[in-house]
Recover the amino acids of this structure.
């Protein structure tokens, strides 16, 4: 017949479930094939024994016809399926009835009951299946006693023992199949949970990466494009005011604004390409980029601000690209603050190479201010530049020191360690860090 299915109370007997069980249970398929082979082997052996011992008897045609009938009925079993439908129950009843008639006519057919045990256990509910097994066992005992010349206790005890073993094997395999199916379902649930957790973790990491990149870009734009656009606006406004009275000065303002626009265009293209500072992309490293920045700010200041650059100490190893980029952006942001807030006439960039760290000092002779604990933090009143500088240094594991006295200028000192690793997470993006 077809595969062994779950006979336990409450078992899932839906067609789709039965098909999946047959397809995914090799033990059930093996047992089914064995029972098929055993049935036909026992049927053939019983018929052969009868024909050899009782040739030419009147009942022989009936025995042959009933043997063929029960074989045909058994072959029809897989077509009807293993669920307890009305058709399968009628089929099982007819099969058992034909076998009983065969046993009455020829007791040697009694041992065909063993495969019928499994057929009944497979189709019927548990209690009905056990009742059928008991009935078949009684017929086997009666048939064996008819064949014996006298009373033999083995003939009375052996058939029930065989029936008990067959039933126990079947029930054990069914319970194993149920446990295996439950285990497979739990494993699938665990795998689904794991996949869902991985997807959620990947989504969280993408969101964190997006926020960190937004914060970094906000600082990049503030220190470059936003400052350049602010300078262009002031220069063009100054040119507009002096255009009629002093055309030469107005044209100089326009040329300076044009130079700033060209620089901002280079920065914008660099953002699109690889988001690296344009000065660093031109070669020469951080020192050359700082000198170029100082010269450019001095030229744009047109005599109102002079910026000088100094490099102290010798660089033993090349600075990481992210350190060079961050220090250059810090210098740009600090000089933007000097132009916007300090009213300074001189500023100095000093890059100092030490054994374990690199330090960038930005000093000016402007009006200064009184530093507080909130100076340079998100939400402070000093604008956007200082929070952005502090955030960059935090990402590199560095520190920012601010020294300022009203009327005596300001010194910003940004120190970046060369051996420490950066913190695992960036500072949260605050509204003050955005342009």
């Amino acid at each position: 017949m077809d595969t062994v299915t779950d006979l336990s109370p409450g078992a899932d007997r839906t067609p789709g479930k039965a098909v999946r069980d047959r397809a995914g249970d090799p033990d059930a398929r093996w047992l089914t094939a064995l029972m098929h082979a055993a049935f036909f082997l026992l049927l053939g052996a019983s018929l052969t024994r009868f024909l050899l011992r009782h040739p030419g008897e009147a009942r022989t045609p009936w025995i042959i016809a009933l043997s063929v009938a029960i074989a045909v009925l058994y072959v029809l079993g897989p077509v009807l399926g293993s669920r307890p439908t009305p058709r399968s129950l009628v089929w099982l009843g007819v099969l058992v009835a034909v076998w009983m008639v065969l046993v009455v006519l020829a007791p040697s057919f009694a041992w065909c009951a063993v495969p019928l045990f499994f057929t009944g256990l497979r189709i019927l509910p548990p209690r009905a299946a056990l009742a059928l097994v008991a009935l078949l066992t009684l017929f086997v005992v009666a048939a064996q006693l008819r064949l014996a010349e006298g009373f033999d206790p083995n003939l009375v005890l052996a058939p029930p023992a065989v029936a008990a073993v067959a039933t126990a094997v079947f029930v054990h395999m069914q319970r194993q199949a149920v446990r295996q199916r439950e285990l497979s379902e739990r494993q699938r649930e665990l795998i689904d949970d794991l996949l869902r957790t991985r997807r959620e973790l990947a989504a969280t990491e993408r969101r964190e990466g997006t926020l960190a990149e937004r914060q970094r870009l906000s600082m990049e734009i503030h220190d470059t494009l936003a400052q350049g656009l602010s300078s262009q606006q002031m220069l063009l406004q100054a040119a507009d005011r002096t255009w009629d009275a002093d055309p030469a000065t107005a044209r100089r303002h326009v040329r300076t604004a044009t130079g700033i626009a060209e620089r901002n265009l280079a920065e914008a293209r660099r953002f699109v390409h690889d988001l690296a500072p344009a000065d660093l992309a031109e070669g020469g490293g951080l020192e050359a980029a700082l000198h170029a920045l100082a010269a450019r700010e001095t030229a744009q200041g047109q005599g109102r601000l002079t910026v000088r650059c100094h490099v102290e100490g010798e660089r033993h190893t090349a600075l990481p690209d992210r350190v060079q980029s961050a220090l250059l952006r810090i210098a740009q942001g600090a000089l933007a603050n000097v132009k916007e807030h300090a009213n300074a006439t001189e500023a100095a960039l000093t890059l100092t190479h030490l054994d374990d760290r690199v330090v960038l000092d930005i000093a000016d002779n402007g009006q200064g201010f009184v530093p507080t604990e909130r100076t340079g933090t998100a939400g402070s009143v000093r604008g956007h530049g200082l929070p952005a500088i502090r955030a960059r240094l935090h990402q590199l594991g560095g520190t920012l020191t601010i020294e300022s006295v009203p009327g005596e200028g300001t010194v910003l000192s940004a120190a970046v360690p060369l051996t420490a690793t950066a913190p695992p997470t960036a500072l949260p993006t605050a509204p003050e860090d955005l342009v």
About this structure: Residues 73 and 303 are 112 Å apart (CA to CA). The chain has two domains: 15-151, 212-433.
